[in-house]
Amino acid sequence: MSFDKETIYKLLPAFDRLRDMELADPSQPEGKGDGPMKALLGLISEQMAVLEENLDQLYDDQFIETCAEWVVPYIGELVATRGLVVFPGAPFSNRAQVANTIAYRRRKGTAAVLEQLAHDVTGWNSNVVEYFQLLATTQYMNHLRPQNLSISGLKDWEKLEYANTPFDKLSRTADVRRIEPKRGKYNIPNIGIFLWRLGAYSSVKSPACKVDERRYKFDPLGKDVQLYNMPIIEEEISHLAAPINVPMPVSRLIMYNFPDRYYGQEKSILVYLDGISVIPPAESPSYDLTSVICICNLSDTTDGTGNWCHMPDNKVAIDPVLGRIAFPAMSAPPSTVHVNYHYGFSDKTGGGDYGRIDTFSTELEDTAKIKVPEDSPTISAALAALQSTGGVVEITNNEYYVETPVINIAAGKKIELRAADAMKPVLVLANDFIIAGEAGSEVYINGLLISGACLRLPPVYGGNINQVKKLDIHHCTLAPGKSRTIQSMPEQPSQPRLVIEMPGVNVKMDRCISGAVRSNEEAEIEITNSIVDALDENTNAYSGLNSNYGAPLKVENSTIIGRVKTRIMHLASNTIFYADGVVPVEAQRFQEGCIRFSYVPPGSLIPSPHECQPKDKQDIARVRPLFNSLEYGKADYCQLSAHCAIEIKQGADNDAEMGAFCNLYQPQREANLRTRLNEYMRFGLEAGIFYGS
């Protein structure tokens, strides 16, 4: 029964309702001029509704799916499960862990539940290896295990291909060292849990970079990139992960023998020739990919000519290790080549085919919007149309845009140049991208891959003083290093990618990858969750226009490769300054600013540091960043090595790692897994946690 005001009022005798209506004020709005009895019942009904809602919630609080958040730990206590450290943006929740506890315990002690637990607790792809199955043992003749061999056949190419990976099935002799400290693996009680920290990020209908008439590269900037597998979701908890279920590099031999796993529509790799996908016709009596493509080694020849070896005669050749494509000599050269592929990286940084709609400027959603190429063929024309009114220029595909746009915005107006959600177009600059405007104007750039020259904020443009108030750059890549020839744009040398010549502007860079930055000392710059790469520890990554002191700097959760010279270090937090030289990091003024929980190279001149590394002189050689790769374009670019000192891997203020991937909370993920493992391990077994990537 509903206890609203009208229902209760109708329960009163008609005589009382008539007397109450006589005392009502009909001139008042509905609900405001009620009689005294109806007004009293209105107050009573409100409190009854609160009580009714509370009773409903008390019933919901008996179930983990519907209970209030504060009840979750209490239900967890009832089923005796341990809570996890839930960090910002965690891919799991304690509610889900409690809800899944019964399902986990039904399979307690099995490899399947350990694998599922590792995935649910860390948010990473995982697979579990029972090492007793891989031991070379003397078998009991009354209980033979034909699959358990003590020798490895040299003709079994698939086992040899996966050697020294988490999917290694070759037999080993016993190793008595313990697995938990990652010393030994192959022993009877040992269980290996592999976590895949790198994700596979898609690039859909992206333009392939042209080398010549018949040679192309998957990467739009023309880099050699390792192609990755798109993980296939496991539908059953009892299924153990295979290579196809994790984000793993695609090898030549595996793709050669199993092309259908990786190549095709809605798979890891696909090539479009003149807009048409390169696959056998649907009406073909026997669908055979090898009739149209071949997988081979397209590495450089050793004769110094710059040619590739194994160029095809009558099929499209793909090299998944180098990310290269070669078209057959017996057919006409293609006009356009586009590709679907997956590349590996640690996090959603630098733009890509991932959701980032929450970073769009909400202030401009109701303003004019021009879509490129639907409403305007070029970015330059779209920006010119909005310079007096402000608005949004949105690029809706992943194509090349070889042009030099200019933003010159009217006073008080705002312009956002952005890629559509889950898009990453490539802007190839012929000359510097000029950003200028009148007093109070603001510019936002989101989701672009920019190659060529640099973003420049000049002090004067068109005879007028540049008075842009703010420049925000989100999820962009201002590609470090030299840029190769792309379409009509010739190769350009390595140079700073962001040059701020005007004073007074506030520049913010978030989740970006950029080359070196140069700035006027009167600007203000903030860098968060980003990588600034000068390509060399002895080169200035951040400085003034003439290698003097740059603008006051605020940097958090970032990795800066190269020297830093700033007038004032307002704040440096959870940051790795990977630099070398006599004075690697230098602030002109020591009285202001703070550097905390960061790695600062010895010899730096900075304000008094707080909990920075290395703390002692004897730790200098040991406590320093070790990266898996410092080459832009590699999957493990700027990822800390497993051999890096723990003071850096857990040295941030939140006990996560320092640097650009601080917000991944990798130590917390591993700690959560260790917390839950013992509950689901059989007695006498021991687990070791390893990184598959």
Overview of the molecule:
Helices cover 16% and strands 24% of the residues. With 693 residues, the protein is of the alpha/beta class. The chain has five domains: 5-60, no CATH class; 72-196 and 682-691, no CATH class; 199-345, no CATH class; 348-501, no CATH class; 516-660, no CATH class. It has an eleven-stranded parallel β-sheet, with helices on one face. Strands 14-17-20-25-28-31-34-37 form an eight-stranded parallel β-sheet, with no helix packed on it. An eight-stranded parallel β-sheet has the order 15-18-21-26-29-32-35-38. The protein is globular and about 105 Å long.
Give the helix/strand layout:
Blueprint: H1 5-10, H2 14-22, H3 36-60, H4 72-78, H5 94-106, H6 111-122, E1 125-130, H7 157-161, E2 190-196, E3 199-207, E4 209-210, E5 215-217, H8 252-257, H9 259-262, E6 270-273, E7 276-277, E8 293-295, E9 316-319, E10 324-326, E11 337-345, E12 369-372, H10 379-386, E13 391-395, E14 400-402, E15 406-409, E16 414-419, E17 426-428, E18 433-437, E19 442-446, E20 449-451, E21 455-457, E22 460-461, E23 464-465, E24 470-474, E25 477-478, E26 498-500, E27 506-510, E28 513-514, E29 517-519, E30 524-528, E31 531-533, E32 540-544, E33 553-556, E34 559-561, E35 563-566, E36 569-573, E37 576-578, E38 585-587, E39 594-596, E40 609-610, H11 646-649, H12 666-680, E41 686-691
Parallel strand pairs: 2-41, 8-9, 12-13, 13-16, 14-17, 15-18, 16-19, 17-20, 18-21, 19-24, 20-25, 21-26, 24-27, 25-28, 26-29, 27-30, 28-31, 29-32, 30-33, 31-34, 32-35, 33-36, 34-37, 35-38, 36-39, 39-40
Antiparallel strand pairs: 1-2, 3-11, 4-5, 5-10, 6-7, 6-11, 9-10, 22-23
Helix pairs in contact: 6-12
